[in-house]
Specification:
five-stranded mixed beta sheet, 11 helices, 3 domains
């Protein structure tokens, strides 16, 4: 059966779903959906009925595209109010066989067992390193032989009641959660590389209403904080100044404004109808001043947040999220972070928008986690997988027939 992953990002503004197939160690996006969010605030369920409706709509859009029913999903939630702690354990390897994924899972589970408060739930458990007998700092001990296996892991906990509410919403929507991860973990894995894995850095996601700042040490999230400003504040500023609605403001921000006023051209103008049904002329310099001022405030707060979270040297800062789509955003990042900050762009066919970075990265994270543990999952049933393969065969036949068609056949 094909290895199909589904990931759902439960945001305050949008619920996003990605379905991807792993093939030759690459992930091919098969379908995406994005619906307006309701009943969800900062990854927490505030209205069960509204949240269920949103999730059902998002899943329905996937069905309309693929013709298959998604029964399982990975779910992304914000890391706000999470607690991260170091846990470790040692297990005996009782037989002469090499260490397996099951041994690794047992060691991680033992580290967690008895160390989680009754009101908390484990969201992420990231191994830092393993030791096999006297051999330390092993990244993947599978296949090694020894008498004892030790693991050190950073375990992140969140309020059990809030996590279970999310799981209940999914269940009532007809979908089971196969795993949970933080949106920040997804963002990291969406763009991770060897340099990031070897250093300390930050991942900043400028969302609609909130900006998330996460510190990663050698690929492990160790600290997190939020700034209560996001791309919607930029839209609100534009809408207020020019007396237009937020839809117009967002469109102008993404297609006309620049992140840095020095790059703008005052002779470039656009006309729009305001709330009073009057045509107003907006020049690029005016709107860019508004955008730059708010983005500077957000980046300034992010910089302070990083200093408060850690005194370690920051080797990289990755920026993602909707606000990074504003033209010239990298220039303002350079101004505040002097070459350390880098705006990343998803360049995956089907998801060339950074709003999907959390859910796409979540798929890569869970796949990486399963490889370490020697496990394998798929989020669709065998029956649905056969249905999808049949559809692919029909589509291939149609393409082949078209390729055989010649003008001389007319």
């Amino acid at each position: 059966m094909s290895q199909i992953y589904t990931a759902m990002d439960l945001g305050s503004s949008e619920v996003k779903v990605i379905v991807a197939e792993k093939y030759n160690n690459n992930f091919n996006v098969l379908a995406t959906s994005c619906v307006d969010s309701s009943g969800i605030k900062n990854g927490e369920i505030v209205n069960m009925k509204e949240a269920i409706t949103c999730v059902k709509r998002a899943i329905r859009e996937i069905y309309d595209q693929l013709g298959i029913k998604i029964s399982k999903t990975i779910v992304c939630i914000p890391p706000a109010n999470s607690k991260m702690t170091l846990m470790q354990s040692t297990i005996d390897i009782t037989d002469a066989n090499p260490i397996t994924g099951s041994d690794i899972s047992n060691a991680i589970n033992l580290a967690i067992k008895g160390n989680v408060p009754v009101d908390k739930e484990v969201v992420v458990a990231c191994p830092i390193a393993f030791s096999v007998d006297n051999i330390e700092n092993v990244k993947d001990p599978k296949g090694m032989s020894g008498n004892k296996l030790q693991v050190k892991a950073v375990v992140s906990l969140k309020d059990k009641e809030k996590v279970y509410k999310i799981l209940e919403v999914l269940k009532l929507s007809g979908v089971d959660a196969v795993d949970i991860c933080y949106s920040s973990t997804g963002d990291y894995f969406a763009f991770k590389n060897a340099y990031m894995d070897a250093n300390v850095g930050a991942v900043i996601n400028i969302g609609l209403k909130r900006t998330n700042i996460s510190i990663f040490n050698h690929g492990i999230e160790i600290k997190n904080s939020q700034v209560d400003l996001g791309s919607k504040n930029v839209d609100d500023d534009i809408a207020y100044i020019f007396k237009i609605n937020n839809t117009q403001a967002k469109k102008l921000k993404e297609s006309f404004a620049l992140a840095q006023v020095d790059m703008s051209d005052s002779s470039e103008t656009v006309e729009v109808k305001n709330l009073y049904d009057e045509m107003v002329k907006i020049n690029q310099e005016e709107i860019s001043k508004i955008v730059e001022a708010r983005l500077e405030e957000i980046l300034s707060l992010c910089k302070k947040s990083i200093l408060n979270l850690t005194n370690r040297k920051i080797s990289y800062i990755i920026f993602t999220g909707g606000a990074t789509n504003v033209a010239g955003f990298q220039n303002i990042v350079d101004k505040y972070f002097h070459g350390v900050g880098q705006t990343q762009k998803l360049n995956i066919i089907g998801i060339r928008d950074n709003k999907y970075s959390s859910s796409f990265g979540a798929i890569k994270y869970i796949d990486d986690k399963l490889l370490l543990r020697g496990k394998n999952i798929t989020t669709i049933t065998e029956e649905e997988s056969k249905k999808m393969r049949n559809q692919e065969e029909v589509e291939q036949e149609v393409v082949q027939k078209k390729n055989k068609f010649s003008i001389f056949d007319i």
